[in-house]
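Reopening closed ticket. The problem is back. First fold of the pair:
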Amino acid sequence: MQPSSTLGRIRDGHWHENIAEAWRMPLARLALVVAAVFLATSGDWIVMAKQWWNISTYNHILLIPLIVGALVWSRRSELAKIAPEAWWPGLLGLGGAMFVWLLGTIGGVNTISQFGAVAALQMSVLALLGPRVAAGLAFPLAYMLFLVPFGDELVPALQMITAKITIALTEWSGIPAQIEGVFIDTPAGLFEVAEACSGVKFLVAMVALGVLVAQTCFNRWSRRAVFMAACIIVPILANGVRAWGTIYIAQSQGIEFAAGFDHIFYGWIFFAIVVALVLGVAWQWFDRAPDEPAIDGEALATAPSLDPLASFRMAGNPAILAASLTVLVFALWASVASRLEAQMPSRISLPQIEGWQSVPYTPELDWEPRATGADHRLLGRYRNGAGQEVDVFIATYSSQGDGKEASAANEGALVPDTAWRWMSGETAQTGAKVDQLYALGRIKRRAETSYISGDLVTGSAAELKLAAIRDRFALRSVPTTMVILSAVEQPDQDPAKAIASLRRSTGPLGPWIDRILQSR
């Protein structure tokens, strides 16, 4: 028989006998630690799997585990030339990853906790197999980050970019049009650059594909950088062309025909053509041979540059014990912190506001913000002597966590699956988050959202998350309140001025909310 490497021999028989002897125990230890990480972070993996399967933006992630497996498998013969060794600095990396997971978990920030869960697997490899093996697996390990669903945060910005590209092309093609936020009015009708039209689905998939192609087909970093720039810019521009094409066709064939054509051709067929064009243009500059080894195992096994790092080796059994204890400590910490809840009054009511009178809430089109998991919800309308009307929505939470996040996606002023559409957004001088909403082609509503948590009053979801993380990390329970002040545009009412007038009457929102919570 021929030796498979300098570290062991392959023998016929059970599958584990085909693994070089020097790798068997390290891989067994790694499997145990990976199982512990999966168990501790199982909630995040379940959430991620549901997102991969149920949300079309993330369907491409279903292929990522297969791609990572294939990348590791292609390196197996070269990896067999490296001696795996436990490495104690890797335990610090594992602790850091679990710390990130802890922060995301107690703050209810799925992206952070999911990133920590994936990073914990990466650091487990580093801790149990050592820096030389991790160097050989650097790209597959890094590519695992694409397991984390991301992109929803880009949707509003991509909507606005697509709208600007679309209006420019529409005017260039001679079609008279007017734009307001993400709505484009043309002779054929009113078009909306909705969330589904933002192009985020194709952009995130293209970035994942681009990184894979850049690594496996290019050697020069300059070419990789240019190719990745194309993978970001081209999908954004193509999405603008897609939206313009729908409007252009609608002018002669009608909106219904254009919408059907958009779904059939301008869906994945159009973007498949774009992918083919990008890869076709880039192909002539591919400078990496298909059969070129991904890594050089012998070079990594003897690389002098890795000697200083490899000197921090440790025994395998203490390493697996330390890794398991690290995972256990953070899992227990997260469990305790996630159960914290502030005391809340049994009921609250909308207060009297000087200069304003509570009037029946009878909107022309129903509007009620979403506050999933809130302990109390209030919605009412106030009118002052000048005839200004402002709708006030208050939701209070005893804690911020899974299913009870005031600033989570689809929570707050814009409720999905209703007639209301997001038109544009900004930040008010008061710090509140402003959403301009539009419905039925004529009703415009301004909604200013603020979050109050302890001494913090902000319209920033990120600031609220950081406050929740800070409090739970210190095992403090602090209530959170979401306040939305909203007004509908009328011939005799400017929504921004009406809301500003009410805020002057309530005084600072923090003390005002405190009085509401302490009133009963």
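Second fold of the pair, where the issue appears:
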Amino acid sequence: MQEEKMSMQVEDAVDYKGFPADRSKTGGWVPAALILGIEICERLSTMGIAVNLVTYLGGVMHLPSSTSANIVTDFMGTCFLLCLLGGFLADSFLGRYKTIAIFAIVQTLGTSMLAITSKLPQLRPPPCNAHDMIDCKQADGFQMGMLYLALYLIALGTGGLKSSVSGFGTDQFNEKDENEKAQMAFFFNRFFFFISIGTLMAVTVLVYIQDEVGRSLGYGICSVSMFIAILIFFSGTKRYRYKRSSGSPIVQIFQVIAAAIRKRKLNLPYDIDMLYEDAPHASRIHRTEQFQFLDKAAIVGEGDFENRSLNCSSGPNPWKLCSVTRVEEVKMMGRLLPIWATTIMFWTTYAQMITFSVQQASTMNRSIGDFQIPAGSLTVFFVAAILITLAVYDRLIMPLWKKWKGKPGFSSRQRIAIGLVLSTLGMAIAALAEMKRLSTAKSVGRSSSNLPLSVFLLIPQFFLVGAGEAFIYTGQLDFFITQSPKGMKTMSTGLFLTTLSLGFFVSSFLVSVIKKVTSSDGGQGWLADNINYGRLDLFYGLLAILGFINLIIYLICAVWYKPEKTKPAIQMEARFNGNGEDKC
């Protein structure tokens, strides 16, 4: 009877009361779907605001185009950068459930505040002809302050949510149960698809409501959807499985670095087996030659085991001595950094799709019969490219590749390379399309707010960069999860998300530099307040060149990278007194 009861429990999970989780009463697809729902609403809110924010800043707040673009990219960059904060809090203090609950409420407050700021006349400047910028009064400090407060509450909420939602969703499945393991794979496969559906709803329905009905209503819908998602999330509290926190990987990395610095003057022992190791044989990682300075963290020094005399079960001070396996885990993370750095440029290119490309669309003919396509809704082609690419890759490319090469699709590094190639081509095509648009603006008058040029000219750049995202997003996620240590999967996911963050910040930096350099002679420069007077084509061309250079560097890094091969565990014991015997 006792054995039967034990078999119904999930080993490493507890229920909401802290008791061992009963597999028949907790976890599975229903709780995972409730968690997935809050991520769909988060994506609906964040993207529904981000893709159309640039037109609000220019048309309502009367800000210059470059300033508007930077506000959007800084907002999106902060969203993803705060994922590190959310992950740290979840791993170290709050746990994933509380982290999701707290930051979902924060995001709901932010969207509610944004709806209020867009509704009250006192919180925006008086209307004018924003296209000509004649007698237009820009938003003052108080108005912008209230807007910033709302946006960065949303960013804080988004960061906390994104860091924990996917992990908490997978917590609902037991990897040691074959049936539940298959369900978890299904959950991963559908996760990106459903958040893309959330994005699709955002760039179509929500953007249309914002442009044609009212901003406050559109933002209010975001707030209401998040509130409903929170209630649904709380309804599953008794059904969830909870994993106990094992400590923050960030702290573990700092411990290895601190121990290595402390012992930087010591020499590595001639016999490498003298290095400290306490991990179980089955989970040990073979020492590698790269980053040898970190190996000094595993040198046993005087005072490292001073607490063992008082309590034989206690280990060494982790800030003074780390095991070889712990050091190798940090090395594995270090080997990811060159790939990490060379994928940032893609997200800099991506940033243009929700900023300057939307501004381009706002000046072009967007009519289909009597229907006027909102400028922000052009990103629907971007989302469509993602969904089409994923379907073609899954149903066509993978089977053909398996027949030809015997492998189930491209490797993660190959998919990243394809994404970088497509984004570079996308920027080159965007530069050509902008040359055509500027030529039309010059012929009919640069002050025209509705050029006789179809907005569908922009579709190729949206499709190329969108298809690139389908490859690079899945490639990065696969790479950072499979090539990172088992205990640092959450950390590596956060590392992946920082490439998105830094991509947006690099975009803001480039825009600021280009604006300053090209406007130094008193002209409007490449990024004029009214893009009809600028040279956005040259900016796109510069991004294409930078993308090509980045692609070459990435290929070098991808060849240099040597994935960790599976090896038998090292058969050695921790040598606490230099002769292989434990003093205890």
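Update: turned out to be a display glitch only; the data is intact. The CA atoms of residues 141 and 147 lie 10 Å apart. Residues 1-6, 309-313, 566-584 have pLDDT under 50 and may be disordered. Please close again.
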